[in-house]
């Protein structure tokens, strides 16, 4: 499970900003939380903000951290680390980027992070916490790596770690138990969906449909979202091994009786929204069943608001989210602020200041100009549209704009 993620000096994040999935003490929509170890965690978090405010950059930053962790040990000494510092400030443009996660594995909390530029890893650290106290496992300051007795699996590997490689990733290659668990979490427990490609993402849904154990669950998820077809089938071109998906619809006579059915080609004859849901269905099913952390950028794109709401409710549902998976998504769908039944600590906003630096904050911590926090009986959607919480685009006076255009001459 993910407890929190912090990023700094990366993309549009100049200062360190934290997305926390640890539930606050507020008493609302308690089905949206679950207990794990000594933590009460959120099942989902939604991120709002204007275009180019940093919503996607938050998800990209987590994807960057995961990619560096996964690929670090495989790099050569000449390879560059794929970080992008905040470039609009002379103080940060040549400084390392910062990444840190707090995760829960087997009821042990691990705090792992690093700072890196494109050439070297500047610092790296790993702590674990079982109950109240936190124990250092290792800490690194450029080429110097200090290992405690709690991390014997790292002994002797310090000298084998390149300047541009993460120590944790190298220890994983040497079969360190703790390192293997953390690297395995990044690889197996995290799913990041951004810029969905239909041909690539439909493959997981197709694969699940072939599983006798998972097919029923997958179809139940699709039926819950009511896409209009009764069932689907997959046909393969044996020559090119390409899969085509077809959906089955009822055919009616003139007085409304079902007399037959007809198969439609999913890609060619169904809507882009139906295609996206089909693409997502496999990821959603796996996520709900197997304790995943799923990031989705622009979840609402191409989807009716009720479909977006349906997906969110699946993750917040004790009935369907049996593994306590977590959904983190960016959206512009303000209807969810009214009908999504979100807790205030599940709602996040991104906003850029005059220096184009992204700020990230939750509704539960937001205070108005009088220093008053937002009550749970307010209309979050109306307040957001009115700009009470910030994180909306600044739009000039269109009436003046149109007036000036209408009166101008070429």
The span between the termini is: 61 Å
Oligomer: single chain
Strand content: 25-35%
Q: How many structural units, i.e. domains?
A: 2
Largest sheet: 7 strands, antiparallel
Counting DSSP E segments of at least 2 residues, the number of strands comes to 18
Second CATH tier, the architecture of the largest domain: 3-Layer(aba) Sandwich
**CATH domain topology of the largest domain:** Rossmann fold
Q: Return residue spans where pLDDT drops below 50 for at least 5 consecutive residues.
A: 406-410
Rg of Cα set: 24 Å
Shape: globular
Strand order of the largest sheet: 2-1-6-7-8-9-10
Plain-language structure description:
With 410 residues, the chain is α+β, with helices and mostly antiparallel strands. The strands form four sheets. Strands 2-1-6-7-8-9-10 form a seven-stranded antiparallel beta sheet, covered by helices on one side. It folds into two domains: 1-189 and 293-400, Rossmann fold (3-Layer(aba) Sandwich); 196-290, no CATH class. The protein has helices at 55-71, 167-173, 177-188, 198-210, 215-224, 266-269, 272-289, 305-316, 335-339, 380-385, 398-407, and strands at 2-8, 17-20, 33-36, 39-42, 44-49, 97-105, 108-116, 121-129, 134-141, 144-147, 190-193, 231-237, 242-252, 258-265, 293-296, 326-330, 347-352, 358-362. It has eleven helices and 18 strands. Strand 15 (293-296), helix 8 and strand 16 (326-330) form a beta-alpha-beta unit.
């Amino acid at each position: 499970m993910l407890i929190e993620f912090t990023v700094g000096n990366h993309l549009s994040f100049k200062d360190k900003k934290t997305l926390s999935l640890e539930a606050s003490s507020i008493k609302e929509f308690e089905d949206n939380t679950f207990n794990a170890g000594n933590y009460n965690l959120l099942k989902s978090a939604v991120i709002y903000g204007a275009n180019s405010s940093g919503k996607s950059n938050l998800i990209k930053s987590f994807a960057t951290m995961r990619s560096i962790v996964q690929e670090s040990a495989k790099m050569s000494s000449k390879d560059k680390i794929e970080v992008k510092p905040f470039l609009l400030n002379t103080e940060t443009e040549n400084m390392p980027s910062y990444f840190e996660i707090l995760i829960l594995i087997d009821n042990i909390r691990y705090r792992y992070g690093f700072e890196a530029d494109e050439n070297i890893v500047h610092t790296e650290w790993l702590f674990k916490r079982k109950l109240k106290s936190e124990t250092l496992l290792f800490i690194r300051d450029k080429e110097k790596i200090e290992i405690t007795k709690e991390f014997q699996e790292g002994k002797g590997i310090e000298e084998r770690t390149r300047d541009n490689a993460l120590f944790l990733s190298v220890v994983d290659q040497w079969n360190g138990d703790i390192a293997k668990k953390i690297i395995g979490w990044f690889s197996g427990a995290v799913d990041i969906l951004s810029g969905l490609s239909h041909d690539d993402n439909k493959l997981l849904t197709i694969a699940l449909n072939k599983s006798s154990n998972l097919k029923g669950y997958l179809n139940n998820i699709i039926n819950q979202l009511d896409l209009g077809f009764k069932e689907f089938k997959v046909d393969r071109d044996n020559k090119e091994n390409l899969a085509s998906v077809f959906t089955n619809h009822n055919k009616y006579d003139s007085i409304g009786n079902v007399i037959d059915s007809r198969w439609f080609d999913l890609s060619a004859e169904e809507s882009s929204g139906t295609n996206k849901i089909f693409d997502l269905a496999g990821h959603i099913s796996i996520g709900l069943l197997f304790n995943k952390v799923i990031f989705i950028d622009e979840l609402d794109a191409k989807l009716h608001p009720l479909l977006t709401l349906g997906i969110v409710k699946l993750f917040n549902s004790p009935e369907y989210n049996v593994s306590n998976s977590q959904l983190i998504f960016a959206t512009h769908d303000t209807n969810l602020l009214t009908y999504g039944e979100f807790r205030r600590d599940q709602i996040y906003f991104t906003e850029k200041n005059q220096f184009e630096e992204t700020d990230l904050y939750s509704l539960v911590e937001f205070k108005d100009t009088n220093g008053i926090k937002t009550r749970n009986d307010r209309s979050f959607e109306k307040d957001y549209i009115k700009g009470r919480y910030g994180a909306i685009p600044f739009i000039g006076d269109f009436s003046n704009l149109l007036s000036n255009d209408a009166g101008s001459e070429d």
